[in-house]
Amino acid sequence: MSPTSPTSTAATAAQAVARYGYVPFMLIGLNGAGIAFSAAGAPKYWLLAVLVVAIATTFLVERVIPYDVTWNRDRGDSTRDRIHVAVNETLILASVAAIPLLAAMVPAPQLWSHGWPFVAQVLAAILVADLGITVVHLASHKIGVLWRFHAVHHSITRLYGLNGLMKHPLHQTVEMAAGVAPLILIGLPVDVASVLALAVAIQLLMQHSNADYRIGAAKYVLALNEGHRFHHLKWAGIGDVNFGLFTLVWDHLMRTYSYDPTRQFDSNQLGMAAEPDYPSSYLRQLIYPFTHAGGCSLKSLTTATTADGNVPIPPSDQGSARL
């Protein structure tokens, strides 16, 4: 037996570091850097620098430990996804910049706990925003007018970091409004909102990344890619699970949590079975929800059932289980 080469040993070590270190680095390291910069009063461009590091890290890890190597290959969608990211991230940043103006227009009692440690303020903002965004996300799978716009996100047939922000800008605005508006009404500081915006972007990268990382039992609580893949199953009802952005707490409470450790995903299971030919270009995706064809039938918005009341599961999905 030939000895293990230094190259293969280094590759194995890199994979181990990526598999177990990616989430702590992103979740604690980069979010922590954003908190530290904001607490110290650093210019906001430092948060953009942290976001660039987060994107670069995700792209690197997706190549070191890909869940599906084919998901790293451009399918004529990379440019479109970058446009989605640029537009939607600009909207997020604009909403943060507009907070002082919004607060002045809608006077509200200053209930925010400014005396709390800065990190506690950020965590509180994340939990409140998580609830608002989760509720709108769930509603977007049940209400036709919301689904028209949310369907853009579900048209993807590969999961990788950048398509976390592959959303129609109107739907992105509604989701963020649901998460941030309650916070603004109780006096959310701009510095906290800035870190929240960074945390949202980092979370979307991790949640959709094509990385076969490990988080142990935390996968039952944190809304990361291992659980979020179930949300992108293309069959109505079966994919109406795991709606949380930051956590799966609300999904457990709403009984929309699903997980099956034996399940393996590929592109044939992603997208929308009801709309396999959904437009793929950015401009068409921008316009399509406003057209007659951009709507969905009631069947594609609700859980289909057989005569005995059971959810029909395609032959390739007999191992799937909703808990």
Protein architecture, described:
- Residues 123-256 form the Fatty acid hydroxylase domain.
- The chain crosses the membrane at residues 20-39, 45-65, 86-106, 118-139, 176-206.
- By secondary structure, this protein is mainly alpha-helical.
- It has one domain (12-317).
- The protein is built from 12 helices and no strands.
- The protein has helices at residues 6-39, 45-64, 78-97, 99-105, 118-140, 144-154, 169-185, 190-208, 225-231, 249-254, 282-287, 298-301.
- Helix 2 (45-64) runs parallel beside helix 8 (190-208), helix 5 (118-140) crosses helix 7 and helix 5 packs across helix 8 (190-208).
In short:
The protein is mainly alpha-helical.
Kindly report how far apart the N and C termini lie.
46 Å
What is the H/E string? HHHHHHHHHHHH
Poorly predicted regions: 297-323
| CA-atom Rg in angstroms | 20 Å
Helical fraction equals: 40-55%
> How much of the polypeptide forms β-strand, as a percent range?
under 5%
Pfam families: FA_hydroxylase
Organism: Mycolicibacterium chubuense
GO molecular function: iron ion binding; oxidoreductase activity
GO cellular component, one term: membrane
Keywords:
mainly alpha, 323 residues, 12 helices, 54% helix
What is the element layout, followed by pairings?
Elements: H1 6-39, H2 45-64, H3 78-97, H4 99-105, H5 118-140, H6 144-154, H7 169-185, H8 190-208, H9 225-231, H10 249-254, H11 282-287, H12 298-301
Helix pairs in contact: 1-2, 1-8, 2-8, 3-7, 3-8, 5-7, 5-8
